[in-house]
Amino acid sequence: MSAFEADLLMQGLTLDAETVAVTVSPVSEVVAREAFIAGGQHAAAAASHDACFSREAAGAGKNLLGGVLDDYYTTLYYCSKGGKIATAKWTRQTGQVRFPGWYYDGKVTDQIDFSARNIGGFTQFKFHAGPVSQLPIQNAYPCLRTRVNSSGGVSTSSSCSV
User: Fold this and answer.
1) Is the pLDDT of residue 95 over 90?
2) Whose CA, among 24, 59, 73, 92, lies 20 to 30 Å from 35?
3) For residues 84 and 90, what is the distance between their CA atoms, to the nearest angstrom?
4) Which residues on neighbouring strands pair with residue 26, listed in sequence order?
5) 7: pLDDT strictly greater than 60
6) What are phi and psi of 41, to 5 degrees?
7) Which pLDDT value is given to residue 80?
8) In whole numbers, what is the pLDDT of the chain averaged over residues?
9) pLDDT at 37 over 60
10) What is the dihedral of CA 9, 13, 19, 21, to 10 degrees?
11) How far apart (Å, rounded) are the C-alpha atoms in residues 100 and 105?
12) Of 123, 146, 62, which is closest to residue 97 (Cα–Cα)?
């Protein structure tokens, strides 16, 4: 193993994927309409609700020294009608690297479930250290899980488990 590979391996040792920022904000009808269209739904879907919101979450993978290797992001749009959650969908699920030799391989999987009272879902990402995706020195599979309820309670964690 070369010195470069050893250094890359040391930098790739990820301690944790921690949530670094979470925001919830109302969105205008125009923004909601654009999100629904981008998601393949009819624009009238946004107008048929009382209010729409977005929940953005960001996570970061860190090495043993606390240096940030990667960032990953999700945005969840959800709309309500009559005080109940009527629809929910992901509008952004992406990541980026912040360290040489560390690569983003995309979204691995996602899930979203919603009822009139709750939304729950997660997105899992894949990053790797090494020369090529098929021969990684190390893989990392961080998650962002989002939960929202109709009374305004929200949470985000770095867990893929239910």
Assistant:
1) yes
2) 59
3) 18
4) 53
5) no
6) -105, 160
7) 79
8) 76
9) yes
10) -40
11) 15
12) 62
What size, in residues, is the chain? 162
Amino acid at 101: G
Confidence at residue 14, expressed as pLDDT on a 0 to 100 scale: 45
pLDDT band at 114 (very low <50, low <70, confident <90, very high): confident
Q: What's the per-residue H, E or C state across the chain?
A: CCHHHHHHHHHHCEEEEEEEEEEEEEECHHHHHHHHHHCCCCCHHHHCCCEEEEEEEEEEEEECCCCEEEEEEEEEEEEEECCEEEEEEEEEEEEEECCCCEEEEEEEEEEEEECCCEEEEEEEEEEEECCCCCCCCEEECCEEEEEEECCCCEEEECCCCC
Which residue in the block uniquely carries the two structure tokens 């599979």?
Answer: 141
The band of 17, judged by pLDDT with boundaries at 50, 70 and 90, is: very low
128 in Cβ contact with 98 (< 8 Å): no
Place of tokens 């090529």: 132
- Contact partners, residue 155, CB within 8 Å, separation at least 6: 146, 147
Read off the amino acid at residue 130: G
Residue written as tokens 């893929």? Answer: 160
